[in-house]
## 1
Amino acid sequence: MIPSNNDTLHFYFHPSPNPMKVALLLGELDLPFSLHPVDIFKGAQHDPAFLAVNPNGKVPVLVDDGVTVFDSHAILLYLADKHGRFLPANGPGRAATLSWLELVATGLSPFSGQAVHFLHYAPEAIAYAKNRYLKEVERHYRVLDARLAKAPFLAGAEYGIADMALWGWARGAGYIFGDAGLSAYPNVQKLVASISRRPAAEKAAKLADTLALKTAVDDETLRALFPQNQGAGAAATPR
Ligand SMILES: N[C@@H](CCC(=O)N[C@@H](CS)C(=O)NCC(=O)O)C(=O)O
């Protein structure tokens, strides 16, 4: 599946939070790319051809002139370094960007993913898990909100890849917080709204409209996204 036409950027995409971070940066850098939709609701992430591109079987993936980069934050760092934009080359701005980027990579993103899982998709309602992940998502948003009370952007004065990473998940926070959305976190809410008004964000949000991807959550979707729940003994297997 690694394209033979390797003189351009190839972006493996699904309009879900982690790929959206990369879609935003590609737009901000005004880079042309070939879009390769991966229909994760149909299980395309498990195709051997896609696993040859990303052995972890997840989107996003970028192939740049034959060089493969997978995992959203690796791609943000790769592109920002390569183009010398949205990530200071050194000094306190770089330290701040890396710190907030990692907080979103290892904190907000996975806790949000697990909150969505236990609130919406888990085969049984587990109050402990719902509470654990919801509270950790709330705690991360409080940390982010306090930071944004002191600075316009996560890294300080300049918009950068840490803000783009936050946007990927925070634009869909209603899926976790319901109608309240980000209202308990007004500084995050303001930044996310201002990013959403940027042309690059509008372009990223429209990518999905060009694709006919599956949106229904049926048995096939649940098998594709949570294969560990399938088969004999799945319920007894620790997750
Ligand atoms: N750490 C990875 C996580 C990627 C990830 O979980 N991607 C989701 C979409 S947001 C996916 O591909 N899900 C399909 C699956 O888990 O089978 C990143 O930041 O890129």
## 2
Amino acid sequence: MNRKTEDQNRAAHTRRDFLKTSTVAAVGTTVAAHMNIIPGAYAQGSDEIRVGVIGVGGRGTGAIKDVLMAAPGVRIVAIGDVFKDRIDEAMAKFKSFAEDPEIKKLGNTVAVTPERSFVGFDAYEKVINASDVNYIILATPPGFRPQHIKAVVASGKTLFTEKPVAVDGPGIRMVLEAYEQSKTKGMSIAAGTQRRHDVGYNEAIKRIQGGAIGDIVATRAYWNQGGLWKKDRQKEWSDLEWQLRNWLYFTWLSGDHIVEQHVHNVDVSNWAMNAHPAKATGMGGRQVRTSPEYGHIFDHFAIDYEYPNGVHMMSMCRQIEGTTGNVSEALVGTKGNYVSQSNRQLITGANEWRYNDKPKSAYVLEHTDLISSVRAGKPINELKNVAETTLTAIMGRMSAYTGKTVTWEQALNSQEVLMPAKLDWSSNMPVPAVAVPGKTELV
Ligand SMILES: NC(=O)c1ccc[n+]([C@@H]2O[C@H](COP(=O)([O-])OP(=O)(O)OC[C@H]3O[C@@H](n4cnc5c(N)ncnc54)[C@H](O)[C@@H]3O)[C@@H](O)[C@H]2O)c1
């Protein structure tokens, strides 16, 4: 299953509730973007969105197109990536973006020159500090995210951060500290947990929090699918380059697939519960993807999470070819049940409701919402939510790796820094050992 397609299929086309409270100008802007009308309906000049993107791989270039389709008055002005060939690939796509009829209608443009495309580990600083950039998109592998988020918050610029926002407890602490600073600065921040910008999900959660299924007594979150991409090692690649190009398979870069991918489903449970779990007891392993090309991550996890009020979430995720796919979230209530799967929302029981509307991408809506918040002067800030859901997934991974029950405090206060102390293009970088429950220590 292609996860981008799956997620895009889940999106829907009307607008989020909070926009109803925005100013008339902001609503006009958003309606324009969503309904493809009045592309010039924003205050020209001072509120132009000038985007800098860090990490221009699959999602980074996807996000460039999404933000160009999100509202009028958007210009892409700088990009950065650790690899020059990724910059070249991104530049090659820009022509087709410029020719997209919807983007043309909005009057949006890509104005990235070779001088405004930065290569290397310090590319993020060059993009963030570019004087014309006022809107940053972070789309590198998540291991770098805490450092990049910290730098964006220091700059005070508007931030769109892909999920997850860290891979370990120390990273989450850095992000939560940045969140506190961003609140003081009144920054607008949105995260790539796009279900929170999807109209169907928003309507479902509003109904559930309004009592449609009664009290929630159990939740379920699944992301079971086949495998994802990998890149064959080239002889000229150092250990570091091989790991970076295959970042999914290294926990210091991805957090493992429970953190990198399953975070989406766990987020829906946390959102509905308006809480995060207090502890996790989980298991998992590496049964099929056992060869060295798959680094050291697991290929399946099953976690029993417990919320502070005693409600349990059954979470499972698997990336194994030939197995039954299931990407869904479900809630069990005292008056009914809820399930969301394949772009369908369904509440059964006393207050039956279903939503099968034709989707407009939530990948676009997340930018529409963020831009509207900036233009209305009503900041939204999703950094705490996404940090807490990321830590939920990290807590599950820690439990599965060690075979121990792990509490929220243990995960949050963990001293385990997964990022190697030095990133060196030439020296050896051994692959960490595959975790063994009962032997791998909880740090
Ligand atoms: N919201 C979603 O549904 C969704 C979907 C796909 C991916 N993602 C997230 O987007 C992020 C990127 O995933 P992707 O699929 O685009 O991966 P990708 O490998 O296609 O792209 C990552 C890019 O980041 C670059 N990069 C790596 N380290 C860097 C650094 N230190 N500084 C600058 N650039 C660096 C890589 O060279 C690459 O071009 C991940 O966090 C992933 O979880 C989210």
